[in-house]
Amino acid sequence: QLWHVGRVSHVSLQPNGQAPLAPSTRPATTKTYIAGGFAPCSPPRVLTTEEIPLIVNQFRDAALRARDAGFDGVEIHGANGYLIDQFLRDSINDRTDAYGGGIEGRSRFLLEVMRAVCGAIGAGRTGLRISPVTPSNDAPPDAHPQALYDHVVSQLSPLGLAYLHVVEGQTGGPRDVAVFDYARLRRAFPGAWMVNNGYDLPMAQQALADGADLVAFGRPFIANPDLGARLRQGGPFNTLDRATLYGGGDAGYLDYPSLD
Fold this sequence. Notes:
It is a single chain. The protein has about 260 residues and is α/β, with parallel strands linked by helices. The protein has helices at about 50-70, 85-90, 105-120, 145-155, 180-190, 200-210, 220-225, 225-235, and strands spanning about 20, 30-35, 35-40, 45, 75-80, 125-130, 165, 190-195, 215. The protein contains 8 helices and 9 strands. Strands 5-6-7-8-9 form a 5-stranded parallel β-sheet. Strand 8, helix 6 (about 200-210) and strand 9 form a beta-alpha-beta unit. Helix 1 runs parallel beside helix 3 and helix 3 (about 105-120) packs parallel to helix 4. The chain starts with 20 loop residues before the first strand and ends in a 27-residue tail after the last helix. The relative contact order is 0.10. The mean pLDDT is about 95.
């Protein structure tokens, strides 16, 4: 998964202690993980129009490096209030150049990244993760999320992506955080459709019956290193220990038991 956090960062994580980069000067009133624990995000500086193609090229180069390292493909992270998502949302992006304004301008960065990566390693090796309404990382939903993502999907569809990975609702939270017609997007996207957000086995089986091609599991996979085997036999499932998330040690990382 290739991503750029944009304003969800801290000066201690940036080259020479510089300010994080973002589409606008609006700060993220959330925290990010640094050495020693979580800290408030640092105020960002605005990416210039001339700098944006450099970021696009970084995504392209990262995809090539992943391919050369032996990965089968990459997923571009366009969700959860990180840089691509920051460009998409009018709640964050107040630019007046070609990368701001209406839906077409705010979608430009995402589409340039996807076309660059697909051109470098092939669309069949490229996926995209989106979260149309999640407010994670102080990213309030766009004023018109359905129209925004209808446009995004209409532009992505001709690329022939390996899949579109869609977070339904708020990442790690309520699925009904906002009204959104995911089925409408599904009908508009011709490729493989991956669903995500709090799925358990019965929910996943129902999603597949309803037309999803793939179901993504995050937290259950942390707690169950052999999740695939457990899903095939219907459990049992280890319980996630939230206290060890972001811990940096063996606890909660290497110590969850396998079935055998």
